[in-house]
Amino acid sequence: MAELSTPMRVYVAAGRFTESEPDLPELAAQIRALLAVVAADEAWRRFLPGYAPPSVREICAALEPVEMHEAAAFLAWVAAVDLVWPSHRHLPAEAAERAADRVVSLLGPETSWWTNHDAGCGAVNGLTPLFDSLLAGTDGEYFVLALQIADD
Questions:
Q1: How far apart are alpha carbons 94 and 108 in whole angstroms?
Q2: In tens digits, what is the pLDDT along the chain, a chain of 152 residues?
Q3: Strands laid side by side in the 142-150 sheet
């Protein structure tokens, strides 16, 4: 996951759950923790005055499922393509695709993937007051998160 990170733009997290039989609320708690890291980052603090990450329940409500066959491409997109200026790349496409394919492969075919994007209409259920895009995956034991944040 570290290969998919870009300072001040793409934040990533990965780990193993400590809870037995974790589900979406436990994944949302990890997302909330990553949002807290962004909020504490000096680069974003001035854009997020008074921001507190949404509750676990609110995060769960903001998430939409992503089909397994779309996960690697979506992960590479979150890591590489700027939300505001799509012609700008945070990472070379090939490097992002290679790293994303590896992450998806390591988690396996039974992984559940989630995003704050509504796949049907393209709308985003923002997790911050800024532009953000999230992809989260879990195989029930491990989790991965990639969050891109941008200002206008």
A1: 21
A2: 999 999 889 999 999 999 988 999 999 999 999 999 999 999 898 899 999 999 999 999 999 999 999 999 999 999 998 888 888 899 999 999 999 999 999 999 999 999 998 756 667 788 999 989 999 999 999 999 999 998 86
A3: 10-16, 142-150, 131-138, 112-115, 64-66
